[in-house]
Amino acid sequence: MLSKIVFAKQSDLDDILRIWGPNRQTLGLMPKDAFKESIAKKWVLICKEEDSTVGYLQFRFTNRTQILSIVHLCVEKEYRGKGYPELMVNKLVSEFRSQARGIKLNCRSDYKKAEAFWNRYGFQPKSKQPSRGNNRSIELITWWYNFGVNDLFSTNQNHKVKAILDLNILAKIMEPALNDNTKEQIAELINDWIATEVEYYYASETINELFRDKINSRQEKTKQFLKDFTELNIDKSSLKDIERELLSIYPGKTDNHISDRRQISEAVLSGFPYFITLDAGILKNSKKILEKYPLKIVEPFQFSAEIDFSINAMDYYPNQLSANNFSVSKLNPQDRDGLESLFLNTSGGERKSIFKTSLDGVIAKSTGCVMVIKEGMSIVSIVGYHLEDDYIQVPLIRTKQYTLRQTIFMQNINDLVKLASDNNKSFLALTDHHITSVEAQILQDYGFFEIDQKWIRGVKKGFSTIEQLKQDLSVFLKEIPQLRNFLINIEDNKNDQYNLNMLSLEKALWPLKIIDAEIPCFIIPIKPHYARELFDTKAAKAELFGVQPKLIWNKENVYYRNVSPNVEKFPARILWYASDSQHSPRSKGIVCSSYLNEVVIGGAKEVFKKYERFGVYSWEKDIMPLAKNVIDKNIKILRFSDSESFQKIVTLKEIKRILSENGEKDNNFQSPMKIKNTTFMEIYALGKGLNYKP
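Request: output the structure for the sequence above.
Response:
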């Protein structure tokens, strides 16, 4: 019989559900809406025999890590033994080989036939952990199929989503009730496919709640169960301010009211993005919490729908920041007193004398500088650095444990990289020994490597060919030997991983641009108003370590567009063309470059809700006009990062000249345009004031 493998359409949903239904106990629970969303993202392949759908492969693509994850692979019982699973995996490999680094999946150790298939296909077992099912002797094995040689599993990066579980959730996981109408929601949280994507925590207030339990046997059983999860490590002295703020949202004086406020306060201060609960009283004010803090309070079924979004986007909340409330300046004598009480890591055993020595050591150096970031009149972060040979050394980088800790840390790192580039330094090194585990994960995402108890990142300015880069990298490899992984396939220009490795290397040494790496490039039009708010620092505010004491929060952002024409591909480099405006001198020209990380298409209401935290946009003023006042009309989101505002606007006349010289079609940029690599380089060089030789 003839068979074919194609991407599923929404009309195939019923067939997929029909195949999944009898096998749900093995495959795990999956909400109907999750299937629909996967189909919309082209994350489901189906196998057709003649006109009948006989199997499906559901997967996910995490652009942030460039990894595919297989969620379900299932063939109807009567069609097994015909090689259809292999055909579907073959199709997945062929579709994503040039975009992804490999395929990951989780499989229980007691599923011997499935284990044999993955082994036979060429997957390797990489790790194992106890399954969260009732039988703790069963292990969950993570299998990996590598597309290239740069095996990300060997770097031990942790991209798991962090979520805090309310005690009512933990209790139901521990003792699921047969007649509980939330049984499926709870089971969804501990599905095998979620297990390696999420780390669950509980608030320390949970222990206080257990202490109030008068049934000793249940109390002890719960304590033992909690050992499978991690308790939040929160500075208790910081909780009081948040608890007081929460009184207006969650009033009440009972033990339960107080406990709820404490749990939410801990969740807010943790910096983790999710608090999962079934408590209706907590859930009803979730929107008010999100408006005030970078925390989403969700039910279990909502959480599973959020996982893909959370993995692909950092826990970065620029909408919580206002340039009018934040300022940065050099440390002055009146701000010196009290810094130890704000930033001393007492839980890590740091002594005041050591902190003082670090701070005074930076101040004493001729190239040293200590920057103080304030929200209003309150100090929330300090960064101490000095220039040394080919390095910017950062022995002190601390952020107060409060709601915006992660976002401010990200911005500090972003601007330190820019500072290293502006000072023509090849390395940025953080030698502060009190980097938190969350901050360590952020540093990994920003291209840092942990070497000899310090975090190092390479920084290379300007242009380089691949051959030049091989020579230049000898300098970087002495300090960061891990960069060698990016070069293993560099000799084989025909390898599917070649350009993906080049893009990774370019971003690892950002703001480097590799001249002959064939990375897709686009010119995308944008209204000057949005350019100013999103990334154009020359038209808006200076960077953190610039000349003006204002902050611009622009590591990662999104831009909303019409779906048509749908020409943008990711990952890619982009140039932003600011359209004509009487109100902006930086218009009718290219003002900035960025990396395009993701293109998302979906209903206006749905995508705005997910990306609202970026904060520049208003539903009424921006999104509804774009959607022609139809809330479910499809719109497009471009998620981009690492923007470089141009000192000099590249005018339309200059752009047209460069297009002509490179054999490109003339264009007035009413819509996105794909351009040649050489065209991008010439425009970028002109905007950045750099010399460029093709």
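The domain at 521-688 is CATH 2.30.130.30 (Archaeosine Trna-guanine Transglycosylase; Chain: A, domain 4).
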